[in-house]
Amino acid sequence: MQVAYCFGSCLASVISVIIAYDLHKSTNNPLVASALLNKINIPVILGNFPLLLITLIKKQYLPLIFLIPITLWHVRKIQRRPSKNICQIYDSTTIVRKNENKKNILELIFKGGYYSMLMIMYTYEFFSPTDKN
């Protein structure tokens, strides 16, 4: 079952990247897709730590292989953000951007994959039957 929902999360990652890239291409403002993905950075990261604890307690090591590296990458990107006060924490144009006129498909791949994996993992953990051994 773990292999099935890890495969599903990879498939959802690809779909989310395609949707985000189309959004990125079709708008007048090239930062719209990035802004949509960045608006929920902090809440998702804070919600990710209980998910890591649940997967450790349930000894689901295969999801952790996918979850831990991308979580650490995402936390590092949030910490490198140049924010001077709390109001700028949701500023959507200051994360992982080398050149604002250039499309950053790597950012869309990581973030699209990250959010879709979290959605699938939260859904699986919430609705999966518990072991009755």
- Give the overall pLDDT as a whole number: 58
Helix content, binned percent = 55-70%
Tell me the overall shape: globular
Q: What is the β-strand count?
A: 0
What are the secondary-structure elements, in order, as H or E? HHHHH
In total, how many domains does the architecture comprise? Answer: 1
Q: Structural class, please?
A: mainly alpha
Report Rg.
16 Å
For the report, how would you describe the main beta sheet? none
Kindly estimate the percentage of residues that lie in beta strands according to DSSP: under 5%
Alpha-carbon distance between the two ends:
18 Å
Number of helices: 5
Query: Low-confidence parts lasting 5 or more residues at pLDDT below 50?
Result: 82-102
